[in-house]
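Obj: model holo form, ligand = MRU.
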Amino acid sequence: MQSLSAHPDHAILWRENRLYLLDQRQLPARETFLALETAPETARAIRDMVVRGAPAIGIAAAYGVVLAARARYEASKARWKQEIAADLEQLAAARPTAVNLFWALRRMNRRIADLAAGDPVPHLLAEAQAIHREDREANRRMGELGAALIRSPSAVLTHCNAGALATGGYGTALGVIRSAFAQGKIPRVYVDETRPWLQGSRLTAWELQRSDIPVVLQAEGAAASLLAQGAVDWVIVGADRIAANGDVANKIGTYGLALLARHHGVRFMVVAPTSTIDGALARGADIPIETRDPEELLRCGGQRLAPAGVAARNPVFDVTPAEYIDALVTEQGVLTPPSPAGVESLLKRAEGAAKSPQGSA
Ligand code: MRU
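Output (holo structure tokens):
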């Protein structure tokens, strides 16, 4: 849509009863929005990575529930609550690892269950907008808490994109980096290109450049020698799912970076809202890891890279054990380091915040 301007903080928009998503598959070459009018279109957009990043996936799905409610209520005022269950299932099946998707759908489902007779759309839209707003607020809070851990001057390395594009705005790992940069603590940010989907070079570099934060791209294979040179003080990443013991699933390659960081005495920070914690999973080994189409690896920009017929494996997340994490930053507080008791206390605080009139964050 021409009249929408692409800004990383406004990649998910609700306008004129439609959901607009900045198409992240096209960045940085083209800044275009897709207009979505149905839940199946929203599920497809999540699956195909029009929108990606754990919190952003949850927010988009919440708006997808609003679209579903409109269609189901128009079709049957008596049966819409039963029939919308199929839309929620379709949205939940879009991607398996980021737990924010299931968290947001559960929250929308609770709202549906509470609704009395009448048009559900205004109520569900208000809930989706609250999820969106609370995520932005959580990111600001995490930005402050994470930046407080960083001494000046510190060079940092990040992996994938855990920025405004991956959230409701501002970002998780990039939120901390933005806050620390604003405080004059960070002279430059090293960014792994993040094969195969290139979230680092296509998205993180785009976001940081837009914010005038000096960015240096590298192949992820260059991280070991960079850390060996003592050029990095903190590795800072986001998360797709955090188990009850503090193990973290994040973009493939994160685990290797954590091992490198520990070996070279570099500190390792994970930044994620409590909506990314899955208290029902005891350990990281229980987290479902998405495997995507090998073609993402075998081709780049429409060009075949490997010989035809070559097999490829494409797991897109890995699990970093809690023991390699120095700081877990959430909107409910910081764990240095994460522990099962610490994670439990964060979840209790989040539950309390959700019940209090001030809400979360
Ligand atoms: O496959 P993606 O691009 O959805 O993976 C994204 C990540 O791994 C991010 O680091 C994570 O979702 C945190 S986003 C704030």
